[in-house]
Amino acid sequence: MRAIGRLGGVVLVLTLIAACQPSGPSGPPPAGKAEVGYVSLQPTSVPHTMELPGRVIALATAEIRPQVSGIVRKIAFKEGGVIEAGDVLYELDDAKFKAAYAAASAAVKKAEAATAGAQTAYDRNAKLAESNAVAAQTVDDSRSTLLQAQASEEAARADLETARINLENATIRAPIGGVIGVSAVSVGALVTENQTDALATIRQIDPINVDLVDSSANLLRIRDEVNSGRLGRGSGNPPAVTLTLENGKPYGTAGSVSLTEMVVSETTGTFTLRATFPNSQRVLLPGMFVQASVDLGSLNDAFLVPQRAVTRSDDGVATVYVVSQDNKAETRRITTAGTSGNNWIVTDGLSAGDRLIVDGFQKFSAGAEVVPVEATIDDDGVVEQDLTAGSGK
């Protein structure tokens, strides 16, 4: 009787367990087949950007050096201030230049007088020669004297112009507008003509340039995308560029690519892009390092593939798994063109409607039969799926 009682208890427990198990199509997958999460792929137009490191460069730089020697009498600018082209920067003692100009002016007047006397003598002799009152040699001599006087006058005028230039150069003016730095000399200092050390430096920083560096291989890839029609520029305007500063904050105003270097570096295999930005607030300063995002346009008929679904082989080739028509895990080699959020931008290797495996990779190998379960991926790259419905698919 006790044996019968124990048997009844076992039957009761088994009955309760069976009642708790799911029934119908939501049961476990067939033996030997792994459940995998997948998403269906559809081509889309994806904004294509290129992330590049960059360094801020002044639009123009002018180092101020004296063109004449002299003692600094006055410094007429505020260090670190904004100046305009033509503003007075330094005034040198110009007494000797004024004296030289006065001497050169007197020499011109003397030469003019000599030229006038020679001209009169030549005219008189030429008239007398018409009546054979003077010899032909006399006319020739007076003509030669006139030409020499005219040459001397021209030389005197050239000396006067040199004296005028030296006098003007005693006042040193700004060749360009911009922000001027610290003065390397003070009042009373002796400066020399075309000296090695600059008196001060002017930099134009509004607008300002940013030099970006990229590899030549990337340049060729982008050119191929444009030529194939996959990368559309739309309006045809220069690519827009946005910046991220060294503190991680975005720069408020976008710029545009203004120059592409036509030479690839022989040592690094890189080329330079130059972008120009408004800089009225002087946030960007020469020498700063920034991170730039270049808007290349839109990649047409591209696929957004979650990064978790992509692996790379030892030779760097990107691969993914897709579910074939007969529900087998199939390997695909793909071509990527950068990222968009948590996704790789894939331009080759996939087709519309492909079922891309995004979860369950540890459960199968290439060529194995799988049970596909449709999944979704949120903005953070987390897979959401209902694996209990797998056997019903």
TrEMBL record:
Signal sequence region: 1-18
Multidrug resistance protein MdtA-like alpha-helical hairpin domain: residues covered: 101-168
Transmembrane annotation, as ranges: none
Domain Multidrug resistance protein MdtA-like barrel-sandwich hybrid, residue spans: 61-202
Gene Ontology molecular function: any one: transmembrane transporter activity
Pfam families in UniProt: Beta-barrel_RND (PF25944), BSH_RND (PF25917), HH_MFP_RND (PF25876), RND-MFP_C (PF25967)
Gene Ontology CC annotations of this record: plasma membrane
Domain Multidrug resistance protein MdtA-like C-terminal permuted SH3: 301-363
GO biological process entries: response to antibiotic
PANTHER family noted in UniProt: ACRA/E-RELATED COMPONENT OF DRUG EFFLUX TRANSPORTER (PTHR30158), MULTIDRUG EFFLUX PUMP SUBUNIT ACRA-RELATED (PTHR30158:SF3)
Similarity remark: Belongs to the membrane fusion protein (MFP) (TC 8.A.1) family.
Official protein name in the record: Efflux transporter periplasmic adaptor subunit
Organism: Pleomorphomonas diazotrophica
